[in-house]
Amino acid sequence: MRKILLATTAVAAAAVFGPAPVSAQEAPTVRIGGFFRFNYAFTDQDYQNPAGTTGIPAGQRVANLGKSDFTSDMEVHVIVQGKAANGISYGATIEIQDDQNREATSGVATKTSLDTDEMYVWVSSPQAGQLRFGDEDGVVLGALATGFITSFGTGGMDGDWLDNVVGANNRPTYLAGGYLNDSTKVIYTSPQFFGFDFGASFGFNDGEGEDSGCEVLGANCDRYDSSGPFGTYRLRRKNEVQAALRYRGSFAGVGLAAMAGYIGSGVTKDNRLGSPGSGEGLNVGVFGLQATAYGFTVGGNYAFGRANGGLALLTNTGVDDRDLQQWSAGATYTMGPVTVGGVYSYGTSAGSEALPAARKDKIWSVGANYALAPGLALVAEYTGGSREEPGSNLNGPGRDKTEVDVFILSTRIAF
Amino acid sequence: MRKLLAFGLILTLTACGYGREVKNDEYFDDSQRARVQGRLSGSDGILVFGTDRSSSRQQDAQEGALGVNAYLWRATLDTLSFLPLSSADPFGGVIITDWYSPPATPGERFRATAYILGRQLRSDGVRVSVFRQELHNGSWVDAPVAQTTNTDMENQILARARELRSQTAAR
User: Fold this and answer.
1) In the predicted model, is pLDDT for residue B61 greater than 70?
2) Is A369 within 8 Å of A153 (Cβ atoms)?
3) Is B39 in CB contact (< 8 Å) with chain A?
4) How many domains does chain A fold into?
5) Residue A226 class from Cβ within 10 Å (0-12 exposed, 13-18 middle, 19+ buried)?
6) I want to staple A290 with a disulfide (CB 3.0 to 4.6 A). Which of A299, A319, B23, B42 is the partner?
7) pLDDT: is A176 or B137 the higher one?
8) Number of C-alpha atoms within 13 angstroms, CB side, residue A101?
9) Which chain A residues contact residue B36 at CB under 8 A?
10) Separation CA A276–CA A297 (nearest Å)
11) pLDDT for A50-92, tens place per residue?
12) Closest CB to B40 among A124, A127, A376
């Protein structure tokens, strides 16, 4: 009772006499953060000769793959932050990473090349919210993303597993936070009102990085807008808009977060003579729900709408232009330094629009982390996945399904 | 019209000050670094320029509702909790207890006054005065207190404050 009275006295006194929060000006600070990981990966995957490869008998392999490999990866973040005398906070984040995955251009892009991941400047007011300018995910799969369970293993379905897989045909697609690329954009996020905050983002073109000009007006030229009558048509996203509403609250000790979002875009135009028509922009709804209590986190996410698998653009030139549908659900449990978790993802999409059947992508993952020290963890993770589309010959003639299993042992460090 | 109403609602909420600033760590971060729990450096990155205010900010947060050091305040309340409380001023840092007569010695009673002298957790940051009375012929008469009693109480409070501080640091 005495404690209650005491507490009441203190709280009442604080409420009546306490000064309003005052935030002092803060000179800017610059911090360097970093990440390094070392993985052992055991990869068991399908890899057959692609359909139509000349000189290769049906069912025979083009090449054989080993299963084990060591890999490393790193990130360096530069984090700038300060606060002006008028209460406005500001800062910038520049993330440098080793990101030339899978030697995408053979013999050209090495796997040790550095590039920038996200880089942006931000300004935040307690009353008006935050503005970010730069290369960033938008609000739906970025700032306000909710329901993706990736906080175990190397990230579960969104972890390191796909970096070990040879051949695009053998990689299932999925949707997760950060999945849409960091095209340069402007992002607004609001303050939180009664548990709700919301945001919107906009980018003119599907391109990130420094320049808007190009040496050649090619597929990767940011300001490519449409083909001429005799040109080549390149399907790209334009005028990407994202909007999201998020709620976070606590009920009887259970933390709840929910998000509803929309991703929309236009596309480049096909003005060629005899054109079958331009592709179709994104028109996708994303919903996420997450609950946390007693060390457990359970979450799910559902996305549907006009897009192909992995939010690729539909060309609308074939016989199948069905909607994308993708859901994932997972859970983690943290007990002291140990976190265990699992996630499952399933999606259907048009896939090859020339084929009438749907493409199906499945991913399942379980993993565990042990925090040896703050910022130093040991990780074990198994992830499996499959991709299937009748008539696709994904895994060689007559084989329309590919499967992959990846087991990873990892140590990772962050500062 | 609906957009206008929604915008108006936002403006109203903002004007009324209902909004809470959402900090950067409340936004989703898809970097691999964000997936590692904790930081080897103890803070979010290694400071290469500027002044680290994270510890003082933390302390300010803890002491936002108090005018004195939070650890000393809580430790004093804990230590004197065997005495009935008469008044507690968290801004002036004064705790005054009521008289208390131990069951084993019904002929004497004690009360204490504690002063917390500042925001810093220092060994000279708390001062305790214990008063003692004895029952003679049905009336309470002031009696001397052993000289070490006040110091012992202060040491007890400082030890408890140190304990609370180390518990917080371990989190």
Assistant:
1) no
2) yes
3) yes
4) 1
5) middle
6) A299
7) A176
8) 11
9) 35, 375-377, 412-414
10) 47
11) 555 667 776 666 778 899 999 999 999 999 999 988 889 999 9
12) A376
Cα(B43)–Cα(A281) distance, rounded to whole angstroms? 42
Is residue A2 one of the residues assigned to a domain? no
Minimal Cα–Cα distance from B34 to chain A, Å? 8
Name the residue range of residue A150's domain.
25-414
- pLDDT of res. A100: 63
- Give the pLDDT confidence of A325-359 residue by residue, as tens digits: 999 999 999 998 999 999 999 999 999 999 999 99
Residue to test with chain A: of B7, B11, B18, B30, most A Cβ within 10 A: B30
Residue-level pLDDT at A19: 39
Closest CA to B126 of B155, B148, B163: B155
The residue with greater pLDDT, B62 or A257, is A257
Would A14 be classed as within a structural domain?
no
Q: Determine the Cα–Cα distance for residues A326 and A301; give it in Å rounded to an integer.
A: 8
Distance from the Cα of residue A47 to its chain's centroid: 26
pLDDT tens digits, residue range B30-59?
A: 888 988 888 887 778 888 888 776 554 555
Query: Does A10 reside within a domain?
Result: no
- Domain assignment present for residue A8? The answer is no
Token digits of residue A236 = 């790209």
Between A10, A75, A191, which is nearest B21 by CB?
A191
Confidence of residue B120 (pLDDT cuts 50, 70, 90): confident
Residue type at A169 in one-letter notation: N
For residue B41, the chain A residue with the least C-alpha distance is A415
Cβ-defined contact of A193 to B42 (cutoff 8 Å): no
How far apart, in whole angstroms, are the C-alpha atoms of residue B14 and residue A126? 9
Q: Give tens-digit pLDDT for B138-165.
A: 888 898 888 889 999 999 999 999 888 8
**Can you give the pTM of this predicted structure?**
0.74
Beta pairing class for A26-45 and A283-293: unpaired
In chain A, residues 297-356 whose CB comes closer than 8 Å to chain B: 339
Kindly determine whether residue B46 and residue A13, on different chains, have CB atoms separated by under 8 Å. no
CA distance A142 to A228: 35
CB B152 within 8 A of CB B110: no
Report whether A323 contacts A296 (CB < 8 A). no
Q: Is B117 on the interface with A (CB under 8 A)?
A: no
Euclidean distance between CA atoms A133 and A344, whole angstroms: 34
* A208: contact with B, CB 8 A cutoff: no
More confident residue, A358 or B9: A358
The verdict on a CB contact (< 8 Å) between A13 and B91 is yes
